[in-house]
Sequence to fold (142 residues):
Amino acid sequence: MATTNHITTKWLGNMQFESTNPSGLNLTIDASPDDGGEGKGLRPKALMLSGLAGCSGLDVASLIKKMKLEVDDFQIETIANLTDEHPKFYDAVTIEYHFHGKNLDEKKLQRAVDLSVEKYCGVMEMFRQFAKLEIKTFFHKD
Fold:
């Protein structure tokens, strides 16, 4: 039996929705005031980028733990280009992995990123179907 996710997204009125998650936590989606909303929720396209970074980030965090690597701080910057024509979508995405620490094992950290990008991250694979991906890794030896 294939694993499936079932999400319920309920309209709360105006431009606001509440969406469930298998974690049991809900999130609010809303349009910007420019688009008739109140800006009191997350934007759908940006959520896709959070999903992408979160998916890959979980892979990398798991590998950091498995490889017993020393990392003080780690963040992912996701910069996406939106097409001009409707329906607007991301046609190019740059994903920057930033590692901070005194004793960074650059080779192993790069391996962790590569494993996520090439093998483990399903959201990355979905994005690959419609966008050109550029992956960059930065090591900040604080």
Strands lie at 9-13, 16-19, 27-29, 73-82, 90-100, 132-140. The chain has two domains: 1-42, 44-140. The chain has a mean pLDDT of 96. Residues 44-66 form the longest helix (23 residues).
